[in-house]
Amino acid sequence: MQVDLHGKQALVTGGARGLGASIVRRLAGAGASVLVADLRKDLARDLCNELAGTVRGDARFVELDVRDAAAVAEVFTDLEAEGQTVDILVNNAAVDVSKPIEHLSADEVTRVITTNLLGPVYLCLETYRRMVARGGGHIVNILSTAANRTWTEAGPYAAGKSGLRAFTHTLFKEAQRDCPGIGVTGIIAGGMETPFILERFPDADVSMLQSPDIVADTVLYALSVPAGSAVSELVVVPRKEPSWP
Description:
Blueprint: E1 9-13, H1 18-29, E2 33-38, H2 41-51, E3 58-63, H3 69-81, E4 88-91, H4 106-134, E5 137-144, H5 155-178, E6 182-189, H6 195-198, H7 212-224, E7 233-236
Parallel strand pairs: 1-2, 1-4, 2-3, 4-5, 5-6, 6-7
Helix pairs in contact: 1-7, 3-4, 4-5
């Protein structure tokens, strides 16, 4: 995918590993300066060091717990104080607790919903109003097939991703009204060969999964569309994806 992102700054949540790291690599390779927002300090710094001097863009670590609205606001306040902006936001951070509903605790549900739904909303609140003021930008929210069709042991995860899909659609409509220069895209991604799946399901059949690089390329595609067009939602799943449609 040929996309020139020189002069653009991107913020990727959950960017230290898995899909997030693939997205960071693709954005930096296209020339963007990338803020790797995560709680995994060592992994994030290792990724930034890996990219230093090897690609056209650059990457630096930003410690961020997306569940903390005040911390999210502080990141943007600090960037403004440095004269910096976020031109591209990728809400990728997500967690899951795979349990039957009868065995879930309130704390587990809160952690999943706050990370997967409220966190991205907090980031969008801080980013969108600033993009409107500047007249442009792009927000990409990573969704899931669980936003369309759920399965057992996926209650909180499906609820969070379904809510984020609805929020993304609303934000897309408001961007059409408020500022045509702002792109808003939801990417429904099927199963990927990442720690997000393999740490919870070590016996998973990897032949049923796709590379996170494919989804990262889909993010670049969303960013490549000319200003006269809009990509509100994309679906990218393995050919053997059992949960789609």
